[in-house]
Write a structure and sequence with these properties.
By secondary structure, this protein is α+β, with helices and mostly antiparallel strands. The strands form twelve sheets. Strands 36, 39, 40, 41, 42, 43, 44, 45 and 46 form a nine-stranded mixed beta sheet that branches. Strands 19, 20, 21, 22, 23 and 24 form a six-stranded antiparallel beta sheet that branches. Strands 52-51-50-47-53-54 form a six-stranded mixed beta sheet. The longest helix is centred in the middle third of the chain and has 22 residues, at about 740-760. Mean pLDDT is about 80; it is low at about 5-55, about 455-480, about 625-645, about 765-775, about 775-790 and about 1165-1180.
Length: about 1200
């Protein structure tokens, strides 16, 4: 097809076309003739699905047989039925070719033809397939191997290829030329886009709307038809007839012409044009008993008619493309099959018989067979005397690769077997002569890593401590690493996390973060941002319309951290949004599970890149000042300003970058940065003292020599580039960049120098355990801004000051020094607020922890006290520490990565009030993302304004989930199962039903959650979710984003409703919500006796309500409504909790009946209702 006449918007595959090309039914058509024609272009599923059995394919009548996806979301550019085998070839706009075998459209082969250009035509030959792209002709085998690859001139812009005979190949393009493979011929009329052939001529269709007839031997023009005044869309030739469709020029531009031009090739003249009732974009002759024409529009309408007769509107049928447009059309050689390709990458096969064949005589197709080799006898490599001559090798007279000359080789003894892990020896228990020990998980199963010498001195390499020669003791570096700094892991049991004691690791009321989620290495930095009071308030006031907004998700996570009373939270939704940001993937911030588990890569570098990325991303999110329409009132934050974002006000530092060329030309440009990177002095090997303030000043006011472009010299010249500060930030963020031995040695040397200077100033040796008073420290002359320690041990490994002062000088310079008590005008004091450190541990791959000084406001909210305290945050381990630990860095295992300094009295500068941005409008009706969703499929009634929930109202809740990653587990030596990593679940459906009022039990939320991540298991038996329910293109459900439904639940939580459900703890955990305990009424615990098993909802419903639910699958509406009824039953049996003893008897009867029934609900023909059983007599008596 020629696309020249179409709207230019088609180049971006926009769904809306030129107004003149939109499908419009003729006004003279009888509407009753089209009442059974489905005009919804989105009604076809993406998977290869056969036509339902209820649709019968009649002989001679074309009906849809199969639909299949070639490449999801990439438009199909060309389709072609193989002329030699029963195959259909499809090419895409991405340059990818796919073949399907037989009428069932089974995928045969798939390969990339061109990396950037679309495939414009496919031609099948006996030994392979020809693919034509813009400037390339490629001949490939049907399996994908290249036979030849011919590069054409890029300026020719090729569109069509024609095989006139077994030795002649014609290629036509837009630049006035037709190629006979290697020979070029000029054509009079430019723009050859379509070529056809008969036994007398070959025909060239031009973009100008003309069709030229040329001689097959001389290529001279024999005749020319001026078909259309605008452009040619398609034409076909059969017998003595030529039919063409195209566009005509109108006053408003090009318009699709509904008159087909028909020409008699015997008389070389036009005959009566044929009027059709669709906008023709493709046409083909389908000669069976007569010379029928098939005319196809891009919207999917198809009409059959005779070229010399009248078009009958009753011959119209409709193809249901998944995308908005049909992009290609082809007819098989047998005329039994039609192929359509649409703009969403789907191919639709229509046939006139249940078992069609593509060719009258097709040869058999070769399929890939398993490799058949001669079976060799097994060889036992454990035998030292095994003759290697048993392995057959080819006889050769050439030198073998193993024949190294003696001068280039040296004998090397075989390496000894690696010693047994000290942790295994330490924990081993012997039974007889056999020892048993738990797997320390320091290595992959059944694998021993090679010990290769590192060529570069990466910093992580010096953390590898040699193993203890004692063997049975712990490794030496484990003695150095304090237990609270080691990597913490969650021990999973049969109950998952329910019986894991998090309180053992966290005795505070602050919330930790769980580490088992992918890319949870950033937990420490999330805690740092949370304990910055202005950042916390700003983020929680933010709400926008973007589906994956890091600022919004971080605000939701901060809200959970606020509500928690020591229970750990998880940032699953935040990390899910983080994984969708393209910049994060480009920066290498998205780790694979294997890399994260093994500690592959430098975590210090990773967290520093993450630090820069998150500040930049939050700054960009906050700069969007448009008030979201879906969340009215969300933009009314007190932080918003018309200029820069508040993130910019907090972190941004304005700078002047000056470039001075040796010619004297100076260029000055302004810029800003959100953080600084430490730049260390060169060649400091003598132990010369350097204050941290000096290094920081050197890093901020950086001066360097580099090659740069000089406008005056008009060439690259050596220039001196300097950086001056215009404005200081409120929060000073520093990336330490300790990535090699060189920087680590600098920190170590400076800490040793500072320690020796302190000892020297005291005037002699200091006892190791000597205690110091304040007077002693004044006599000692402790470094300004350093911590006054109570013992000499606290002076070791300290170089970092707790406070620094910074001042802008009159000549635009910067003065940085350690802080003193002296008051001075224009001096800003920065206090250390947080340090993020990298813990080097070869056993676990290392980890990241944070030291954070928690302010008074956080203690006031959590504990009701007013003081400041330093804490260690190691995922879900939180422990108060002495302040000197935050600045002590033993470079053998504890390496600084990020520093946060905060301007003194910062909180008084900002409005720290938090206004909940979520309003009641989120509960009102909203549009579904699903294209096929109809009103008849609605399963819920949204709340009206007069039904808005109030404090204490009941809401029935149930959620269904799908699995994204399978569980990882191992079998212990005693045969028990140990969960290494739990399965990763994602919420798929959330239902809320009314708990009171005239509409009690009627759902007001029933949202299916769209997901962009790959689903491993839909758990249909337990969730009722089927493949396709979560796909916006084919789903018939009410599909929404996770963020949209999350806002609805957050509003219900904030308003104070009480949720009734069964197993709500797991539901809220997967949804990633923190709900106060007094707002949760869980029937699992209402009908539970201590130290007894939990009872399923199905059994409770059968026992108490005489209901049989969850027959084949689960339904969340049914489960939520049943939980509400069970809660009403609980209130009835317990007399609103006033008669616990009588209710205890009911529970005893319940457990007794459950044991007799083995906790299984009887089948319909089985036992009678429990209300008729003797054990239920106590319930009836109540």
């Amino acid at each position: 097809m020629n696309f020249e006449g179409l709207d230019p918007g088609l180049a971006e595959y926009a769904p809306a076309m030129h107004s003149a090309l939109d499908p419009v039914l003729d006004a003279h058509l009888n509407s009753s003739l089209l009442q059974n024609v489905e005009l919804d272009p989105d009604g076809v599923a993406l998977e290869a699905l056969p036509v339902p059995e209820s649709v019968h394919i009649m002989e001679g009548v074309y009906s849809e047989l199969h639909s299949v996806v070639a490449e999801v979301g990439v438009p199909v550019s060309v389709s072609h039925f193989d002329l030699h085998e029963e195959m259909l070839w499809v090419g895409s706009h991405g340059g990818h070719a796919t073949s399907f075998f037989g009428p069932a459209l089974e995928r045969y082969s798939s390969f990339q033809v061109n990396g950037s250009d679309d495939i414009r035509q496919i031609q099948s030959l006996e030994n392979g397939i020809l693919f034509l792209t813009k400037n390339n002709l490629k001949y490939m085998a049907r399996g994908g191997l290249i036979i030849f690859d011919y590069l054409l001139d890029e300026s020719e812009d090729m569109h069509s290829v024609l095989l006139t005979d077994s030795s002649t190949l014609l290629v036509g393009g837009l630049m006035c030329a037709t190629f006979l493979f290697l020979w070029s011929y000029a054509v009079e009329t430019p723009g050859v886009t379509i070529m056809r052939q008969t036994n007398r001529f070959f025909f060239c269709g031009h973009t100008s709307g003309k069709v030229s007839l040329r001689d097959l031997r001389t290529f001279k023009v024999e005749h020319e038809f001026d078909a259309f005044s605008g452009s040619l869309s398609d034409f076909d030739v059969h017998g003595n007839l030529l039919a063409a469709c195209g566009f005509s020029s109108r006053l408003t531009g090009l318009a699709c012409d509904r008159f087909l031009k028909v020409y008699d090739l015997r008389m070389m003249r036009a005959i009566t044009p044929l009027q059709v009732h669709v906008d023709p974009a493709f046409l083909r002759f389908i000669p069976t008993y007569t010379s029928r024409l098939a005319i196809i529009s891009q919207s999917g309408q198809c009409q059959f008619c005779e070229p010399t007769g009248l078009a009958n509107p009753a011959d119209i049928f409709h193809v249901n493309p998944v995308g908005p447009l049909l992009m290609t059309f082809d007819v098989s050689a047998s005329k039994q099959a039609l192929a359509f390709g649409d703009s969403e990458g789907c191919v639709h096969l229509w046939t006139d018989s249940p078992e069609p064949s593509f060719n009258p005589y097709s040869r058999e197709t070769e399929f890939a067979l398993p490799c058949l080799v001669d079976s060799l006898p097994p060889l036992d490599w454990s035998q030292d005397l095994l003759p290697l001559s048993l392995i057959p090798v080819p006889l050769t007279t050439d030198a073998l690769l193993s024949d190294w000359p003696a001068a280039n080789s040296a004998p090397a003894p075989r390496l000894r077997a690696p010693p047994v892990d000290a942790e295994i020896l330490r924990t081993m228990k012997k039974v007889g002569f056999i020892g048993y020990a738990p797997n320390p998980r320091t290595r992959l199963r059944n694998q021993i890593p090679y010990r290769l010498k590192e060529s570069d001195s990466e910093f992580d390499s010096f953390s590898q401590v040699t193993e203890s020669p004692i063997g049975r003791e712990e490794e030496p570096h484990l003695h150095m690493i304090s237990k609270k700094y080691r990597k913490v892991t969650i021990k999973y049991s049969k109950l998952g996390l329910e019986d894991f004691d998090f309180k053992h690791y966290n005795k505070t009321l602050f919330a930790g973060l769980e580490p088992h989620i992918p890319n949870a290495y950033c937990n420490c930095m999330i805690q740092v941002l949370y304990f910055l009071e202005p950042v916390r308030c700003l983020i929680q006031n933010h709400l926008c319309q973007k589906e994956f907004c890091l600022a919004c998700e971080l605000g939701f996570l901060f809200h959970m951290l606020d509500l928690s009373r020591g229970d750990p939270c998880q940032g699953s939704n935040f990390l899910r949004a983080f994984r969708t940001i393209p910049e994060a993937s480009a920066l290498g911030l998205i780790l694979a599970d294997s890399d994260e588990a093994s500690g592959k890569g430098s975590l210090a570098r990773l967290i520093q890149r993450w630090n820069r990325f998150i500040l930049t991303q939050l700054h960009q999110d906050m700069q969007e000042l448009e008030v979201p329409q879906a969340y009215r009132g969300a933009g009314g934050s007190s932080f918003c300003s018309s200029g820069d974002s508040v993130i910019g006000q907090l972190f941004s530092c304005e700078m002047e970058n000056c470039s001075l060329c040796r010619c004297g030309s100076e260029t000055v440009r302004a810029s800003s940065t959100l953080l600084f990177t430490l730049s260390y002095p060169e060649g400091n090997k003598t132990g010369k003292s350097c204050d941290f303030a000096q290094v920081l000043k050197r890093s901020i006011c950086l001066e360097q020599n580099t090659q740069a472009w000089c406008d005056n010299c008009e060439k690259y010249q050596p220039t001196i580039q300097t950086r001056n500060i215009r404005h200081l930030p409120d929060i000073l963020v520093i990336n330490c960049e300790v990535n090699s031995l060189k920087e680590a040695d600098f920190w170590r040397v400076q800490a040793e120098v500072a320690f020796k200077m302190a000892i020297k100033k005291h005037g002699g040796e200091i006892s190791k355990n000597k205690e110091f008073t304040l007077a002693d420290w004044k006599e000692l002359g402790s470094p300004e801004g350093m911590l006054m320690c109570s013992s000499v041990e606290e002076l070791k490994n300290v170089w970092l000051p707790f406070s620094i002062r910074m001042k802008m000088t009159k000549n635009k310079g910067l003065d940085v020094c350690n802080w003193t008590d002296e008051e001075e005008h224009g001096v800003y004091v920065y206090d250390l607020m947080a340090t993020v450190v990298h813990i080097l541990d070869s056993r676990t791959g290392g980890s990241l922890v944070a030291h954070i000084k928690v302010g008074e406001t956080y203690h006031q909210r959590k504990e009701g006290v007013t003081h400041q305290q330093w804490y260690l945050f190691n995922d879900f381990l939180i422990e108060p520490i002495d302040k000197h630990e935050a600045v002590q860095f033993d470079m053998s295992w504890k390496v600084p990565a990020i520093l946060y300094y905060v301007k003194r009295n910062l909180n008084s500068k900002y409005n720290l009030n938090i206004k909940n941005p979520i309003e009641a409008s989120v509960l009102l009706a909203e549009a579904s993302l699903a294209r096929k969703q109809r009103k008849t499929h609605t399963t819920f009634i949204p709340l009206m304004l007069n039904e808005m929930p109030q404090v204490g109202d009941l809401v029935g809740l149930d959620a269904e989930f799908v699995t994204l990653n399978e569980e990882e587990a191992e079998l212990r030596s005693d045969g028990t199962k140990s969960t290494i990593k739990p399965s990763q679940m994602s919420v798929a459906r959330i239902t809320c039903v009314r708990g009171q009022g005239p509409n009690e039990g009627i759902p007001f939320i029933d949202d299916y959650i769209s997901t962009q991540e790959q689903v491993v298991d839909y758990l249909t038996q337990y969730s009722g979710i089927k493949p396709g329910d979560l796909d916006a293109k084919i789903s018939s459900k009410h599909l929404t984003t996770l963020k949209s439904t999350y806002l609805k639940l957050r509003f219900l939580i904030d308003i104070g409703v009480k949720f009734v459900g069964h197993g709500l703890q797991k539901d809220f955990r997967v949804i990633n919500l923190m709900v106060p305990k007094d707002q949760v009424l869980d029937t699992v615990y209402l009908f539970h006796m201590p130290r007894k098993r939990m009872i399923s909802l199905r059994f409770l419903a059968w026992y108490f309500l005489d209901l049989k639910i969850q027959g084949e699958t689960h339904d969340s509406i049914e489960d939520a409504r049943t939980a509400l009824q069970l809660y009403r039953k609980y209130l009835e049996l317990s007399k609103n909790g006033t008669e616990p003893e009588s209710f205890h008897k009911v529970l005893k009867g319940l457990y007794e009946k459950g044991r007799k029934m083995d906790w299984k609900v009887p089948e319909p023909e089985g036992q009678t209702s429990p209300k008729n059983a003797a054990v239920f007599s106590s319930v009836l008596a109540l």
